[in-house]
Amino acid sequence: MRVTVSRKAHFNAAHRLHRADWDEAQNAAIFGKCANEHYHGHNYELIVHVTGTIDPETGYVIDMKVLRDLIKSEVEDALDHKNLNIQVPEFKSLIPTAENIVVVIYNKLKSHLNTDQDLEVELYETPRNFVKYTGP
Amino acid sequence: MRVTVSRKAHFNAAHRLHRADWDEAQNAAIFGKCANEHYHGHNYELIVHVTGTIDPETGYVIDMKVLRDLIKSEVEDALDHKNLNIQVPEFKSLIPTAENIVVVIYNKLKSHLNTDQDLEVELYETPRNFVKYTGP
Amino acid sequence: MRVTVSRKAHFNAAHRLHRADWDEAQNAAIFGKCANEHYHGHNYELIVHVTGTIDPETGYVIDMKVLRDLIKSEVEDALDHKNLNIQVPEFKSLIPTAENIVVVIYNKLKSHLNTDQDLEVELYETPRNFVKYTGP
Amino acid sequence: MRVTVSRKAHFNAAHRLHRADWDEAQNAAIFGKCANEHYHGHNYELIVHVTGTIDPETGYVIDMKVLRDLIKSEVEDALDHKNLNIQVPEFKSLIPTAENIVVVIYNKLKSHLNTDQDLEVELYETPRNFVKYTGP
Amino acid sequence: MRVTVSRKAHFNAAHRLHRADWDEAQNAAIFGKCANEHYHGHNYELIVHVTGTIDPETGYVIDMKVLRDLIKSEVEDALDHKNLNIQVPEFKSLIPTAENIVVVIYNKLKSHLNTDQDLEVELYETPRNFVKYTGP
Amino acid sequence: MRVTVSRKAHFNAAHRLHRADWDEAQNAAIFGKCANEHYHGHNYELIVHVTGTIDPETGYVIDMKVLRDLIKSEVEDALDHKNLNIQVPEFKSLIPTAENIVVVIYNKLKSHLNTDQDLEVELYETPRNFVKYTGP
Questions:
Q1: D77 Cβ partners below 8 Å, 6+ apart?
Q2: Which chain D residue lies closest to E9 (C-alpha atoms)?
Q3: Secondary structure of A28-60 in HEC code, one letter for each residue
Q4: C42 contact B CB<8A
Q5: CB neighbour list of residue C18: distance below 8 Å, 6 or more residues apart
Q6: Domains, chain F, ranges and CATH?
Q7: What is the pTM of this model?
Q8: What is the set of active-site residues of E?
Q9: Does B9 touch chain C (CB under 8 A)?
Q10: What is the pLDDT of residue A113?
Q11: Taking Cα atoms as reference points, which of E63, E46, E51 lies closest to residue E108?
């Protein structure tokens, strides 16, 4: 009996989409306003889904408080109120698109779960644009 | 051509998380504030997803009015404005965690659907915590 | 230049609507399912609005972190995961309707604000039912 | 590394559910108020999900601006502020239930995607009723 | 001690914006796509706010169940699944803009309230466009 | 008969809260993580409310399309995907707190309205923190 437990969280960050090996015209053509050299930002809304079996003793798949604390220590503390391009090591050589951010978050969380628990991560960059990653 | 039809509903209930075979210290350690002996409560938001083939005559997978009435008779009438621990038989010997509640709701609904219809049930305990069950 | 600063918070609680000086028939006639002797509960969503002048030095009417901490200490710590009828002194002799709860919350917060700051409190009992109080 | 990219859009339309080969009693029995001969309408909310591999050069699965423009030209321009029964060719001989609309939208979009991209379309007819189609 | 009690409701309807005494060019210039002769439609979301004093015996300003039933009989039964232009008498000679609809709803409800209760009506035509009327 | 017409819009931006005439310790004490020298950002959600009389000929207080275009030209074009501190002239010497931003937006819009129309502007910095300004 496998159930999925989900928890919402959020963080605010600045970023820009830009390749140093492209000239400005090419960056503007591909990334548009997102290439702004002075950055812009988002309220990222995050949903973390963990699927596993219910522990018959507690009735929990995973304690929500444990999941909440894991998201805080691994994701919020690392990304909240940060400039993703400058202050988050994973994006030193990786463009912080929503797609790349959601993979980075997945990788930060996965190793902390039991091996028989499945992980899915959704990330809202705006209320209308969002991405999802369920692992390789 | 299989399509999923989804319907939202809701109910309000009181509950507590607690094992009679544990002492208070162990209950508090595992269930925290949720073990409060005088109960607390939630506005549970429910989403029922039914997947099946479109009836070419009506254009329906399942009539939404039929689905709405099924949710009312099987779930809302049984759980709304109730104390789950005391007044709902399924939780006499089962801790009413969100995980266990979603499985109970799934089982209440499944037998009323056609055998070729798939069921998935989502249950929001709060706007930030929710669970999903797609069957055994 | 007066601006209103608003902050959302939430708490979960159990309650029932019931008068000890009425018989069960009268309680049922007026309060319906809300009179259930074993309680039911809600995810209460709270919005606190503080109106005042912008401090020209900080650009703040009130520091959101200060407002968040005030709501936590005065409201969440007092009401979250509680049975309002049994465990919250203000409701020993006051029926915990949404109307009465919002007045209680207003009174808990008002004395902590500057005298030239106006307070308005909104309380959602469910996503479809809510109340607002702006003081006497 | 496959990631799902999702984009929300919306359109407003009138429709009715009705079969010309049924008499009014049968239409009323099956479709209820939705059979009203003078039509009624909805704010349809649409979520388009595209799953594919991340382009290592841009960090995109699909450029959101490209996806937004595709939804506009294929869906919004065809359906927004229209009477679905009268003004949209696909529904000349197909009842515009949510189930049939979501399949029509899927078919309008699918041919514009790369063959290795998966498509899923969700359509909210109201905030409480919605459907999803992931292809044949 | 005056408190505002609010209740959400909704109805779906078709309408068009059009003046018979204008030619099509003028209707198109002012009303754009909303002038479509075959109608379009919306999920109208309605919020009714009633302000009054708390009854010390019940703790209610107005019983939510009474307010819900009043909205149903006066507004939902009159407007839901209707073509506003054709089937709702108030719009025989009044353009069903959101502004005019909210005034009509206010007038339908006002006479049913106590004279010392204030009424405010909000109407969402779409999630991004809405109107409010607090009386003459 | 005065009615309020409201329109939602949004923009994304980077900012930081910081006074050049304070040392870093004082900036950190007052502005916390918001003082981060590399900026962070938000999805700002904006609600513009215009109150006026209904034009009996059109049924409009203000044409929503006119209001939408005004918000785009005055607010979105000026602030969207910008660094507020560096790229928006109003914040060269004004800290871009939510309070100050809402006043700037109010002033950008007010002169474009009729003198008998009232303006109110709400700005959500996050889904839980927001401000409102109704003029001097």
A1: none
A2: D127
A3: HHHHHHHHCCCCEEEEEEEEEEEEEECCCCCCC
A4: yes
A5: C27, C31, C35, C37, C85, C95
A6: 2-14+41-133 (3.30.479.10)
A7: 0.96
A8: 34, 81, 125
A9: no
A10: 98
A11: E46
Write the pLDDT tens digit of every residue in C101-128.
999 999 999 999 999 999 999 999 999 9
DSSP of D47-88: EEEEEEEPPTTTS-SS-HHHHHHHHIIIIIHHHTTEEHHHH-
For residue C103, which amino acid is it?
V
Q: Which of D10, D34, D90, D120 is catalytic?
A: D34
For the stretch F110-128, pLDDT in tens is: 999 999 999 999 999 999 9
One-letter amino acid for residue A41 of the chain: G
Eight-class DSSP state of F1 = -
The residues, any chain, with a CB within 8 Å of residue B5's CB and separated by 6 or more, are B49, B50, B51, B52, B60, B61, B62, B64, B67, D98, D99, D129, D130, D131
Sequence letter at residue A21: D
What Rg do the C-alpha atoms of chain B give, in angstroms?
17
Positions of C marked catalytic: 34, 81, 125
Q: Are strands B40-53 and B82-83 parallel, antiparallel or unpaired?
A: unpaired
- Assess whether D81 carries a catalytic annotation: yes
Asked if D74 and E47 count as a contact pair (C-beta separation under 8 A), the reply is no
Alpha helices (runs of H) in C72-115, residue ranges in sequence order: 77-79, 84-87, 98-110
Q: pLDDT (tens digit, 9 = 90+) per residue, C31-66?
A: 999 999 999 999 999 999 999 999 999 999 999 999
Contact D130 B6 (CB under 8 A): yes
Distance CA E49, CA E120 (A): 5
